[in-house]
Amino acid sequence: MVNQKNKQLGEARSVIREIFEYGNARKKVVGAENVFDFSLGNPGVPAPAEVNEEIVRLVSTMPSLALHGYTSAAGAPEVRQAVASYISAAFGVDMSAEYIYMTCGAAASLTVTIHALCEAGDEFVVVTPFFPEYTVFIEGAGGKAVMAATDSRFHLDMEALDAAIGVHTKGVIINSPNNPTGAVYSREELAALGKLLERKSREKGSPVFLIADEPYRELTYGAEVPYPMAFYKNTVLCYSFSKSLSLAGERIGYIAVSPQCEGAADVFSAVCGAGRVLGFVCAPALFQRVVAKCLGRSGDIEEYRKNRDLLTGTLSACGFTFVPPEGAFYLFMKSPEADAVAFCERAKKYELLLVPSDGFGVKGYVRISYCVERAVIERSLPAFRALAKEYGLI
Ligand code: PLP
C-alpha cells in the first residue's frame, strides 16, 4: 500500500531524537534545570547581528512580491553570484555562479548531490564515525554505503580509504570540521586524499567524486579548514548556513560544483535535475538574500570555545578520555565500558543525556553536543563527577 522502506524509516525515530524526547519528558518530572540534555546539534548562540539587520533591511526596502516570490530554480542570480565571488576570493579557487545551486541546508545539498551522481550499483564511501543520515541519503538514492575507518585521532586513514574505494565507488563523503568527533582535516590530509582519488579515478576510468559536507566550516578553535576543491578537481561541496549562522530552522545552504570537475556542466545539470526530482528547487527566497550578505560570518564561536574548555577540563580531571575537538561543537568521548548504550543508560540516572556512538558507525564512544547554554554545562559537572565515581575513574 505504501513504500515499505520509507514507512520503516518514518517509524524508526533517530536515536538522537529519541533521547531528546526522553529529555523533554524528564524535564516535566524533575524540572528543566535538572536535566542535562547533550543530544541535539541545535546551535546555542544567536545568529550574528547582520542576519537580523539584513532581514529588516530586505523587508523594509524590497517590494513584497519580489522578495517572497519564486526565484530561479537554482537560486536568485545575484545570490549565486555573491556566493561564487565569495568562494573565489576567500579560498583562491576559480568559482563561477553557474555552478552554484542554492538549497535547503546540508541535508538537501547532500541528497541532491548523491541523487545527481548515483547510478545503479554505485557505492559511496563514508568515513567512520559519520553523521547517521548519510546512509539514509545514500540508500534513498539507490546507492550502497561503504565504511572506511579513521585513525586513532579520527583523522583520515589513507590505507582504509584505499581499501574501501573500488570500481563501483562513485563518491567519497567527508565532513570537516566533523560531527561527531570535532576533527578538522589538514592540508596534508586533503592533499593525500586528492592524490588517492586521482589514482582511483584513473584506475576506474571515470571520476571518483569527493563530496565535502561542510556545515561547520567556520566553527573552529584555531585550526585552518583547507578548501577541498583546491586539492582535488572532482569535488562537489555541500554547504549549509544552519550552524555557522545559527539558522538551522530556516533551511538554507548551497551546492558548489567545482568548475574543474570532469564533465562539470553535466554534473551541474544532474544537480538541477535531482533538485527537481526531490522538490528542492527555489530555496527559501528571503534567506537566500540574507545569507548573500553574511557569507563567511558566524555566531560567537568564543561561546562554544568556553563550553568546550569547561567540559573537557572537568571530564579529563574525572578520568574520562577523548581527543580534544578542533572544531564544530561535539565531544566524542570514550565510554568507560565497552557497551556505550549501557553507559548512556547509566548516565541517565544522573539526568545526563548522551548519545551512544553505535548510530555513528563505531562502538564504544558517546557524543556530547556542547552547543547548549553555559549554565547547563555548569550544572551538569557534579553529575559527570558522580558518573565517573560510579566507574571508579576518580
Ligand atoms: N551534515 C552534518 C555533518 C551535520 O551535522 C548536519 C546536521 O547536524 C547536516 C549535515 C544537516 O544539516 P542541515 O540542518 O543544514 O540540513
Structure description:
- By secondary structure, the chain is of the alpha/beta class.
- Helix content is 43%, strand content 14%.
- The chain has 14 helices and twelve strands.
- The chain has helices at residues 4-11, 15-30, 49-61, 64-68, 77-91, 105-117, 133-140, 158-164, 187-204, 264-278, 285-292, 301-317, 340-348, 374-390; strands spanning 36-37, 100-103, 123-128, 144-149, 169-175, 209-214, 235-240, 253-257, 330-334, 352-353, 355-356, 365-369.
- The strands form three sheets. It has a seven-stranded mixed sheet with strand order 2-8-7-6-5-3-4, sandwiched between helices. The protein has a three-stranded antiparallel sheet with strand order 9-12-11. Strands 1-10 form a two-stranded parallel ribbon.
- It binds pyridoxal-5'-phosphate (PLP).
- Residues 41, 105-107, 131, 175, 179, 213, 215, 240, 242, 248, 253 line the site of pyridoxal-5'-phosphate.
- Pyridoxal-5'-phosphate (PLP) binds at residues 41, 105-107, 131, 175, 179, 213, 215, 240, 242, 248, 253.
